[in-house]
Write a structure and sequence with these properties.
about 60% helix, transmembrane, mainly alpha, extended, membrane, single chain, Dolichyldiphosphatase
Amino acid sequence: MFFGQLACEAANFSLKRLIKEERPKGQAAMGKGYGMPSSHAQFAAFWAVYLGLFLMVRHAPRATGSGSGPRPRGLLNGGAGQGEVWQAGAGAGGGHGAAATPLGGFLERFGTSLLAMSIAAAVAWSRVYLNYHTPRQVLAGWCAGVACAIGWFVVTSVARQVGLWDWALEHPSLRLFRIRDLVLTEDPAQAGWEKWETLRVQRVQRKEL
């Protein structure tokens, strides 16, 4: 997303100098430079749309079980006996499926995407309310941001499908800085939570000995 935002900024810079439309006039007018399209509306729209596409189309975290460990008495399920095993992502029947992460389920991912769109819409509205841009400039910025988000999503999808991204990750310069790509199948928040749960269970077990 970072490089996509840079490309979006370059597009906004070029469009403003190509169109050369001034900001709103009047005593209450604010801001300097050209106003078409609104950069804030464009960047917010890019962020929200790309995040939504990523969460709803590309991101699919799965349970890894890295946080599995013995379940001490009284911690889970109201005093279950010792020897039971807690497994990340296990359902009521003990089976494994999609991880029960903050972004793991459809409703969570959809809700996060909807929240991002609401924030982006609020940012766009604020540019008109504060008289930094006209409604037309904000609408143009929003459309440009959506177009950039979809375009960058397509570019990155093709790069993954043809193996270009995997090839780049094997480059010595990226490996030197330990650049990795776990975001598609692993939820960093869930991985950290599982590690914390393992340590917590171990501390409780030591106290019971």
